[in-house]
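Structure tokens
________________
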Amino acid sequence: MNIVEKVTNIHLVGIKGVGMTALAQVLKSMGKNITGSDKPEVFFTDAILRKLGILVHEEFSADHIHANTELIIASSAYGDDNPEIAEAKRRETPILNYPQVLGILSEKRKSIGVAGTHGKTTTTALLGLAMTDLSLDPMVIVGSQVPQFGDTNARIGKGDYFVAETCEYRRHFLNFHPQAIIITNIEEDHLDYFKDIDDILLAFKEYVDRLPAGGTVVCCVDDNGVRKMLDIVARTDIHIVTYGESKEANIRMSKHTVNNEEQAFEITIGEKFYDFQMLIPGKHNCLNATAVIALTWSLFHKTMANNQLIHSLQKTVREFASTTRRLQKVGNFNDMIIFDDYGHHPTEIRATLKALKDFYPDRYLVVDFMPHTYTRTKSLFDEFSQSFEDADMVIINEIYASAREQPIPGISGEKLAESIKSHKSNVHYLPKQEVGSNIRKKDLSKSIFLTIGAGDNWKIGQELL
């Protein structure tokens, strides 16, 4: 019996974090008494925690750690300078972080980890839904709200499978115990921790090495980083299944089209061809769906009727409604459709803008981007500067800093806006609080307004509605 199973009273430091809120739901379902603390800022997770009836303190204080507190679970954003963590150490109360608890939970089920620089959340949600539709009743932890899970970011299933979004940052995913892994892509990111791309590739290789003999890794062979990672994987006792548009893919996506706000594509498995449709934008989302199809086919085609398996997957993919902050259609203001997306890497920005242009070719595209972290903005500055080609108007906000970093001299939202101007016109720097009123003054009917970034500029869309 592990420590999570042994204890009853658990306190979560940073409970409003997406992963932490998902843990709270899972732990509550296990009969644990949960309390938590976080900043007073309102997040979408507040509603989930209220529904669960969990006491959430809107500040951090040593007074929240009691004699009967048996375990502290801390968000990775907080360290020894947090008064609650300091008090727990003084009391010698056991402390685990989020990745460690995710790892403990993964030991008890047939666990599937979804990893990659981009696309983890969408792919995790879609895989969880696919396995639900196949009556496998999985437990699922996702990095965003899933409308089809009842607007929560966790599914409390009683089946054998556990599907979880697993992150490479600080090698957190090496806490996880996977039976199968999806890797969507591998690029430079989190360079405040990783030395370079080779270090990132090594981390993913180490993750694959955690698979047991007979385990399965499904990965996108179109991606240069994935191909380089596969070159250093020496395992011969695991199943490596590739997917993508490449002719060398084991499970291939082809004949992608966009018509009347609907995507269609064909999947080739062996000598058979299957048609799929998606009602959300983005060719990258069709590739995410292909990853899910590849994994479920690899795991279940020998034990399920193949026609039934494919039919269920076709239904899941067509009905998928995306997740919160992943190309989410927020609403409509004076015939301006408002979208929001969490993309905070140049590749994600380019893919999201192209997806909207493909879906709405006749609409003017206004993009509000809030850069996330000084370190990422600095390390990918030139790439960010060239990521907005498909936008008709670009607004750059101030940088949304991480709790773990300090401002870097010479790196700012204003500097980024100046750099983007060297590649395209109609670029503006505006603090977040000024954007809504500025947009209201313009005639932007028959346009798209997209807020994108891992900060809080999503609030602009809410302000406009």
Remarks:
- The chain has three domains: 3-96, 109-319, 328-464.
- Residues 12 and 36 are 4 Å apart (CA to CA).
- The chain is about 35% helix and 25% strand.
